[in-house]
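Notes from the 1:1 (GR / supervisor)

We went over the backlog. Supervisor wanted to see one worked example end to end before approving the batch request, so GR pasted a single chain during the call. The sequence is below; no edits were made to it. Supervisor asked that the structure be written out right there so they could see what the output format looks like.
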Amino acid sequence: MSRNSLPTCPPRLPSEAKSIDSYPSQKRRTKQSFRRRLQYFYWRLLRLHGKPEVIARGLACGVFAGLFPLFGIQTIIGVLLAIPLRGNKIMAVAGTWVSNPLTYVPIYAFNFHVGRLLLNNNTLTDVSLQSWQQVKVLGSEIIGTLFVGCFTVGLVCAVCSYFLGLSLIRRFRASYHSRRRRRNSYKKNFSE
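Structure output shown during the call:
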């Protein structure tokens, strides 16, 4: 049978109704695609291989780096900290997400107040931020106070995130392995 003798379908004509309704379905597909990507990254993080201590160290390095106001290089700092501390680099990257555009202001305001309390520096409370000259004169003092607060809060949060991450990773893995054992025993019993 030759190709020319095969029946052909007429070309489809675009439908006006389809073009009107395509926007909501496209929006729905985009939302589903975004949700699916988030689920993929969520499961990828949960299924990281390695010892729980290594993964938790990586998380702690990322959280520590994420609490500094070094926009754009927090991720690099987190990974560079994870290398000598033998932490997981992927979790170090994920740990820096503790600071994002929604949390910048509260985190850095809190860090600044902690730094001010630690340095016992009350002169910064009298500064009018509307006067640019005062801000320029006290700029290094403000930055120093902020970095002292960031270091302190970052250290405390890193230690807390290490122990919390270690606990959660161990609990998740124990739950995962028990479900897997039950599923395998069910399959074994069912196949017999």
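Supervisor's comment: Residues 139-191 form the longest helix (53 residues).
Batch request approved.
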